[in-house]
Design a protein that fits this description.
By secondary structure, the protein is mainly alpha-helical. It contains 5 helices and no strands.
C-alpha cells in the first residue's frame, strides 16, 4: 500500500497499474489456517469476507483506472481500498490477535 501511495503521489500510473493486482490477489493463509479463522469468525465470516472482496474489487478498478491514466478514479478507488482495510482492521484485528496470539 505504501508503494501505491508513493506512485500515486508521483502520478506514476504505470506503477499503480503494476501494483494493483498485488492488492487484488494478496496472499491468503493456508487452507487449514483459513478453516480455523472462518470457524472463529462464525457468523461474522460473511462480513469479514465482504471487506476482502470489496478491497479486491476496488484494487482491480484502481488498476484499470491507472491503465487509462485516470488519476481521479485511481485516487477514489485507493480511498475505497483503504476504507475496506481500515473497516476490517478496526472490527477484527485486535480480536484476531487476542484469540490466536494471546493479545
Amino acid at each position: 500500500m505504501n508503494a501505491v501511495n508513493g506512485a500515486i503521489s508521483q502520478k506514476d500510473w504505470q506503477t499503480v497499474a503494476e501494483l494493483a493486482p498485488r492488492i487484488a490477489n494478496h496472499a491468503e493463509p493456508p487452507i487449514l489456517e483459513k478453516v480455523k479463522i472462518l470457524a472463529w469468525l462464525n457468523i461474522d465470516a460473511p462480513k469479514f469476507r465482504g471487506f476482502d472482496v470489496k478491497a479486491k474489487d476496488d484494487a482491480a478498478a484502481m488498476g484499470d483506472a491507472a491503465k487509462k491514466g485516470d488519476g481521479q478514479a485511481v485516487v477514489a478507488d485507493y480511498a475505497k481500498i483503504q476504507q475496506s482495510c481500515l473497516g476490517c482492521h478496526e472490527q477484527f484485528r485486535q480480536k484476531f490477535i487476542d484469540h490466536f496470539y494471546g493479545g
